[in-house]
Design goal:
Strand order of the largest sheet: 1-2-3-9-8-5
Largest sheet: 6 strands, antiparallel
Distance between the termini: 15 Å
Strand content: 35-45%
Shape: globular
Number of helices: 3
């Protein structure tokens, strides 16, 4: 499982980059969902998001899931390309698979990489 140490993580499997405000789903989440076939971003640039509110909906061959804001702030960018290439969430969840960027993002309850890894390991048993 890939868990970059520079990011923060939520218990609902979203990541947040405090350096640039980017957010998306974790490697663990995309692995659990399997092949992602559809992404709908529920927010747009200029909108305000709150921690825990839905920012996207994804569907895979196995399940569908809501993706929640890991931080509160103003949406400064939206990765509109995900609608055309939802599989990017599987192949590059921390790079090209970012969903939104949040300006002035105040993270909610987040974990560092070590805590998130331990949290995921605990769920696997």
């Amino acid at each position: 499982m890939n868990v970059p140490s520079n990011l923060k993580y939520t218990k609902s499997d979203e990541w947040f980059d405090p350096a640039n405000g980017a957010a998306g789903i974790t490697d663990y989440a995309q692995n659990q969902l399997s092949d992602i076939v559809f992404v709908e971003l529920l927010v747009d640039e200029g909108e305000t998001v709150e921690v825990g509110k839905p920012i996207a909906s994804v569907e895979s061959v196995k399940a569908s899931a809501e993706i929640y804001a890991p931080a509160s702030g103003t949406v400064s960018a939206v990765n509109k390309g995900l609608a055309d290439k939802p599989e990017t969430l599987n192949s590059d969840p921390f790079g090209e698979g970012w969903m939104i960027k949040i300006a002035g993002g105040n993270a909610g309850e987040v974990m560092d990489a070590d805590a998130y890894t331990a949290y995921c390991d605990g769920r696997a048993h």
